[in-house]
Amino acid sequence: MPDRIYLDHNATTPVDPRVLEKMLPYFTEIYGNAASNDHDFGYEAKKAVDKAREQIAHAINAKPEEIIFTSGATESDNIALRGIAEKYVHKGDHIITCVTEHKAVLDVCEKLEKLGKKITYLPVDQYGMVDPEDVKKAITPGTVLISLMFANNEIGTIHPIEEIGKIAAEHDVFFHTDAAQAVGHLPIDVQKMNIHLMSMSGHKIYGPKGVGALYRKKSNPRVEIEPIIFGGGHERGVRSGTLNVPAIVGFGEAVKIGGKEMKKENIKYREWADYILTELKKEVPDIKLNGHPEHRLPNNLNISIPGIESRALIVKLKDVALATGSACTSAKVEPSHVIQSLGFGDGRAHNAIRISFGRKNIQTEINQATESVLDQISKLNLFKV
Ligand SMILES: *Cc1c(COP(=O)(O)O)cnc(C)c1O
């Protein structure tokens, strides 16, 4: 019996051993600066970066020169939103986003509002999905960007990205998507989906932390970005700073492995999600699924258990690591903005747990975790009466 079961892969993933193996030589042997063009040390580092760039571009049907390496999806979101807002001031000052976005988008929008930009926060339906018609209606002559996440990190809901991309293209508005949870997990085609900018992260897909990328379309239409970090003009002037070669090598390998294994893994994850939900419902029939029943990340299961405070549940769960539907700030427990936006009230968020599967999980862990959760639910219920 494993003594600790990790079911929080939407928060972060372990580095895949195959990824680590590719990275290791780049710490101690091939340690050149990818920007040094005076010797082979630099050339070899650049070659490795170029390979990762090709792996990532290939996975999303982009061109290698459209991939800009960053420190992660947070930075990519910042560059995309701030970079467009600043570059296209002559065109307009309006951005469309959604209430369920990650804070890496919402907090940037808040900052942009302080700088005088207009932001529309689209609502979602009870499954956390945005209505493409709402996107269309929100577009004004001053709209410069639509920023909508590919798949939600809390409830897994996958937005109708292709439809939204089509709307953006028809209205000559750029379309950015935060795909931190989607790249390496779901098939993505930036051409077919009319995506102009896309944020990606290494550590959500069995790559290292502290590395990510921004896809930026280079032609038809060409997307210009005003940089937010200056100093040396690396990454086509969009993101200066010496490249983290080992992390980039790992990121490229992680994307490649994800592409090969996602189909098989997703079938397994969906079975596990269905199994857990069915087993829990046998004991607590009014458990609610948060997120879309079909259009959802296969490795995500977010449920609210009526009458069970999720914080109380997870402190008792000694052998299983999973997440709650709330975030502890210094002063109080804040219910998740994502689950609140579904329109069922705060209770739904306070009762929510997020279970997210990963590559190393095995069936016996899923069984044990289900039993542990059931056991704690019955204990907490007993305690109440
Ligand atoms: C994890 C995550 C981020 C942040 O990515 P980092 O690489 O950790 O900066 C942004 N958006 C979504 C949807 C995420 O899941």
What is the top-level CATH class of the largest domain?
A: Alpha Beta
What's the CATH topology name of the largest domain? Aspartate Aminotransferase, domain 2
Low-pLDDT segments: none
Number of strands: 15
Taking the alpha carbons of the first and last residues, their distance comes to: 32 Å
Strand content: 15-25%
Summarize the structure in words:
The protein has helices at 17-23, 25-28, 40-60, 73-87, 103-114, 132-138, 161-170, 245-283, 310-316, 337-340, 346-350, 363-384; strands at 5-6, 67-70, 94-98, 118-122, 143-147, 174-178, 197-201, 212-216, 288-290, 300-304, 320-321, 323-324, 326-328, 333-335, 352-356. It has 385 residues and is α/β, with parallel strands linked by helices. It folds into 2 domains: 5-12 and 262-379, Alpha-Beta Complex (Aspartate Aminotransferase, domain 1); 17-256, Aspartate Aminotransferase, domain 2 (3-Layer(aba) Sandwich), CATH 3.40.640.10. The protein has a 7-stranded mixed beta sheet with strand order 2-8-7-6-5-3-4, sandwiched between helices. Strands 9-10-15-12 form a 4-stranded antiparallel beta sheet. Helix 4 runs parallel beside helix 5. It is globular, with a radius of gyration of 21 Å. It starts with a strand and ends with a helix. The structure holds pyridoxal-5'-phosphate. Pyridoxal-5'-phosphate binds next to helix 4.
